[in-house]
Each structure stands twice: as structure tokens, then as C-alpha cells.
Design brief:
Blueprint: E1 3-14, E2 17-29, E3 34-38, H1 45-52, E4 60-65, E5 68-69, H2 75-85, E6 86-89, H3 101-112, H4 120-126, H5 142-153, E7 160-164, H6 172-187, E8 191-195, H7 199-204, E9 207-212, E10 215-217
Parallel strand pairs: 3-8, 3-9, 6-7, 7-8
Antiparallel strand pairs: 1-2, 1-4, 4-5, 9-10
This protein binds adenosine-5'-diphosphate.
Adenosine-5'-diphosphate is lined by residues 12, 14, 19, 21, 39, 41-47.
């Protein structure tokens, strides 16, 4: 399964001001690749990730997964592609605050209908939250919440993981644990695209895409 974005544009209008969040971004993500997206705050990383998963619609350009278009499809079709192909961790949104971590993961597994997914406890261990399965989302720190979201994103062992800052606020040991998990995905042919400020994580990626003002720098 290959993810391909061609010439993505995204504009936002706030009053009279126009922000060009993406200005002609193209990229390819192959099975077994880890790609890091880096760039300063406001460079368009989150907007890019939202367009790649079909959570947002680009104003120009096209996203394809395995030859099928994600862009300019009815929401039901996009949701079906997302459920089948993607695990998604964005800055907010994939956790039910009043449920425990274990229940969040189990719910995701049920929604995804996967038979041979890893057990919640194993997933929590991989993201360094083995001791937090019974905690509710509201009881977690910012970094723990990001990793809880990562565990949910991985609950169905998705072919493509799209993650925004999965290693925010973690210590070095936990970061290495997360990197090992991304490398295990690589070994089993799964693709991983991560927006990150972490040099340690970027260093282990197969490629780094550097965004600046909504465009990929090629220097
Ligand atoms: P990053 O993830 O690299 O910090 P973003 O993709 O969040 O960057 O933002 C890129 C630019 O688009 C920023 O200037 C941001 O203010 C703007 N932007 C992002 N989302 C919106 C929105 N929903 N409405 C208006 N402007 C937005």
C-alpha cells in the first residue's frame, strides 16, 4: 500500500487575511518506510497530515492510497479508507476522555473489527504506559495523552501510521522505546509518517521531509 500526495495546496482565510498553509507539497510513502516531517511551528505539518488522511480536504492537488483517491470523495468513502488503511494520531481527537486507556484501545479494536491485534496491555507497554491502563484520559499528563493516542492509533495494526508529535514530552528511554516500535513496523512492511521536532526520531527515519512556509525544502 503506497501513499502518494501530489501538489497539495491548502489556504485558510481569517477575515481578510489568507494563510497559504500548503504550497504545492508532493510526497510518497512506501511500505516499510519511516518518514519524518520536520519544520518550525506554523510550517504546515499538521495541515499536511490532516490532508494525507482525508480528515481535511486540500484546495488543490490529490492524495492517493494504493491508487485510490482520498481527495474529493464523499466523507463516507474517506472514512472507509481511513478505517482500513490508517492509524492516526493528531494533536487531539482520538481518545474518549471519560474512558480508561484500556477501554479506549478495546473500543478502537472493536470498531476496526480486527481479530489478531495485539492485546491492550502489550500495546500500552510498547508506548511506556503499562502501569496506566486503568487511568482515565483526564488523569494523564500531556505526554502521556500523546502516547495513549498513539496506542489507540496502533490498536488495529494499521498499514499506514500518521502521527503528529508522538514523542512530545517524553524522556529519552521512552523515546527509544517508541522508536523501536516504529522500527518494528518498518520490519513488517508497515509505513510510518511522523511530524516531529525530535532529532533522535528523525535520525532513525529513512527520509526527512523539511517543511518551510508550506513547501518542502530541497536543500
Ligand atoms: P504546524 O503543524 O507546522 O505547526 P499548521 O499546519 O498547524 O503548522 O499551520 C500552518 C499554517 O496554517 C499556520 O500559519 C496556521 O496558523 C494556519 N492554520 C492552520 N489551520 C488553520 C485553520 N483551521 N484556520 C486558519 N489558519 C490555520
Amino acid at each position: 500500500m503506497m501513499l502518494q500526495a501530489t501538489d497539495l495546496y491548502r489556504f485558510f482565510h481569517t477575515g481578510d487575511a489568507e494563510t497559504l498553509a500548503l504550497r504545492g507539497v508532493s510526497l510518497t510513502l512506501l511500505p516499510g518506510e519511516i518518514v519524518a516531517v520536520m519544520g518550525p511551528s506554523g510550517s504546515g505539518k499538521s495541515t499536511l497530515l490532516n490532508c494525507l488522511t482525508g480528515l481535511d480536504e486540500p484546495d488543490g492537488g490529490m492524495v492517493r492510497v494504493g491508487g485510490m483517491s482520498v481527495s474529493r470523495q464523499p466523507e463516507a468513502a474517506r472514512a472507509a479508507i481511513r478505517a482500513r488503511e490508517f492509524g492516526i494520531l493528531m494533536q487531539s481527537g482520538n481518545l474518549f476522555a471519560h474512558l480508561s486507556l484500556t477501554d479506549n484501545i478495546q473500543l478502537q479494536m472493536q470498531l476496526g473489527g480486527v481479530a489478531d491485534a495485539p492485546r491492550p496491555a502489550a500495546l500500552l507497554d510498547r508506548v511506556g504506559l503499562a502501569h496506566r491502563g486503568h487511568a482515565r484520559v483526564t488523569q494523564l499528563s500531556g505526554g502521556e495523552t500523546a502516547r495513549a493516542g498513539l496506542a489507540v492509533a496502533l490498536a488495529c495494526d494499521p498499514p499506514i501510521l500518521i502521527a503528529d508529535e508522538p514523542t512530545a514530552e517524553v524522556d529519552a528511554a521512552t523515546e527509544h522505546r517508541l522508536i523501536a516500535m516504529f522500527e518494528a513496523r518498518r520490519a513488517s512492511g508497515k509505513a510510518t509518517l511522523i511530524a516531529t521536532h525530535s532529532e533522535a526520531l528523525a535520525h532513525r527515519a529513512d527520509r526527512i521531509l523539511r517543511l518551510k512556509d508550506g513547501a518542502i525544502c530541497h536543500d
